[in-house]
């Protein structure tokens, strides 16, 4: 008897290549050996992170040695103190002199001198000072800060002065250490000084010019300015910042600050 075509074993045989393929699929479905997983490549850092991770190049000077003085038209000297534990209160000085005697070949032989008139303190206070300080002998908040014995006491101490004791390269900037004298007290202070721009030939003067950003901090209580420190209403730490341009002076102009 002849079986129908679809029941004939001869027609039910699966070709060898197809069997091999089926076996491979079956092994895969049953959890056969799989290729070893590899960890994904780490995500590339964004441009900001990459730049922050870079080691900045060491400071190099392109300006000549000489006496440099601050250009008050393009400078800002400020200080900040924590107010009521909330935010930093900012004030500025408008009248000061800053000199850099630069030895470009041997930076360690350079010196920095800063002298401030405390009467020039400026806060941008917009309130009615007299209305809120009825018992004060002063006419403004700036006058209070400048003259009051609680603060700068300018009548007895008409100058705030910084004289450097060392100027040292510190990686990409300078570390300037010195003595700060205020209210008759002198204590050491360190400033980190960054050169933000420099030219051997200023476009208007033809002489050297340096752009500078400087920052540092100190405690005010050792200088006798401890008003409201114990109550936590005004911080003891004072943060100082300077941004500005220093212009090379003509040869022979060595007058002090």
Structure description:
By secondary structure, this protein is mostly beta strands. The chain has one domain: Lipocalin. 12% of the residues lie in helices and 40% in strands. The chain contains 4 helices and 10 strands; from the N terminus they run H-H-E-E-E-E-E-H-H-E-E-E-E-E. Strands 1-3-4-6-7-8-9-10 form an 8-stranded antiparallel beta barrel. The longest helix is centred in the N-terminal third of the chain and has 14 residues. The chain starts with 15 loop residues before the first helix and ends in a 9-residue tail after the last strand.
Structure described in brief:
With 257 residues, the chain is mainly β.
Number of helices: 4
Radius of gyration: 36 Å
Q: Please state the average pLDDT score.
A: 86
Biggest sheet layout: 8 strands, antiparallel, barrel
- As for the CATH topology, it is Lipocalin
CATH class: Mainly Beta
